Amino acid sequence: MAGLALAVALTILGSAGGCAEVFGEASPAALDESFQLRVGQSTVVEPEALEIGFEAVSGDSRCAKGEVCIWEGDATVLIWIKGAADARVERELHTSSKGPGAADYESWSIRLVTLAPYPITGRSIPQAEYVVTLEMTRGSSADSAIQ
Fold it and tell me: Contact 53/42 with Cβ under 8 angstroms?
């Protein structure tokens, strides 16, 4: 019985630890490598010491799985970027060609790689379920689009 109680306690502690990361700082990210953030999470891109946060999805009109759509649809992701001595700067990134999928911050570019989950007919996506995959590179978004 004591073994079962210990297993339950460890499961609860493990779950609580996982929840703490959802609304806090994520593991450090590396320049030129993709990384993921949940809404409310931020990370530091090393070695640049830039902090990037995922604020919200302000709109999601992507065509739901199983549907036939006559337009492309788009989701708008709100992120923020902060240098060591700078104030936070907000940017909007888009999943479609309706808006920019990348944005510049000083000499860096941040690019939206993917947004999950993908919409399903009849189910709204709570903000807490969104996960964005981003990539930061040196240079402008115009440069990164050419590569």
Answer: yes
Which helix or strand (DSSP H or E) is residue 144 part of?
Answer: helix 141-146
Phi/psi at 83 (5° precision): -85, 170
3 state DSSP class of 49:
coil
Gap between the Cα atoms of 47 and 45, Å rounded: 6
Backbone dihedral region for residue 3 (phi beyond 0: left; psi -120 to 50: alpha; all else: beta)? alpha
Cα–Cα distance between 135 and 33 in angstroms, integer? 6
Tens digit of each residue's pLDDT, the chain (147 residues): 444 343 333 333 333 343 333 456 778 899 999 999 999 999 999 888 899 999 999 999 999 988 888 888 999 999 999 988 788 999 999 999 889 999 999 999 999 999 999 999 889 999 999 999 999 999 877 644 433
* pTM over the 0.85 mark: no
User: What does the alpha-carbon distance between residue 62 and residue 98 come to, in Å, rounded to a whole number?
Assistant: 12
